Amino acid sequence: MPSFDERHLAVRDVDTAVLMAGDGDPLVFFHGGGVIEGFDCFLPLAERFRFVVPFHPGFGASDDDPAVAGIDDWVARYVELFDQLGLERVVLFGHSLGGWLAARFTIAHPERVRRLVLASPAMMNVPEHPPANLGEMSPEQIYAALTKDPAVFAGRIPQPLDDAFVGARMREAQSVGRVVPGPFDPVLEERLGSVRAPTLLLWGEDDQIVPVGHAPAWAERIPEIETRVFPGRGHLLFHEDPEAVAAVLEFASD
Question: For the range 34-38, what are the long-range contacts, defined as Cβ-Cβ under 8 Å and sequence gap of 24 or more?
Fold first, then answer.
């Protein structure tokens, strides 16, 4: 099984950590609003692809970027990062917050995305299926809502929570707050129709963070899309079910 190497690049003068594994055509993963569960479950993708996982500003070993003023700034950052890595055209894969980012990146730069994978993407306005209000939830409630499989977080959450762990989560939340415009993205619906890349939409049927009821709203707006729902799986469906990773591998390999 391949393993990750970590590189650091200056992107818009901000130190940015990037995990990479494998060789072949590039497959880039945009992570969601948390990274404590890690990325090892995705390593099977590196057996076929050059698998690239950049950390958003304020996450992991990436420095903060106080100059960010919205999601368009993150998109522009990743255009620069792709250029530095020589990634002209990629399979782009995003989960949750990263799914929203992947969609916005594809809308802005369709020439850079060969295929698109969206997993439980956030920021769609679906009033009848409200997402979890993380700001009103305790850490314990959030982790319980992310997955019912305690093995996902085994050895990754200190008990009790220490200052370093809590500080890292606060840093991530501040970074997310710089790009999220509110409870939903007000321009997302009208722009999704411009996505021309073949798209795979994946969701856990038991997602307690972004309910599976959001899936039709995405599927109705992206012209060429395939939807797969995984019964009994939650928001961290890739950590819960290797079949979800296998679905990405199959789709990306076409």
Answer: 34/146, 34/169, 34/172, 35/59, 35/60, 35/172, 36/153, 36/156, 36/157, 37/146, 37/152, 37/153, 37/156, 37/236, 37/239, 38/156
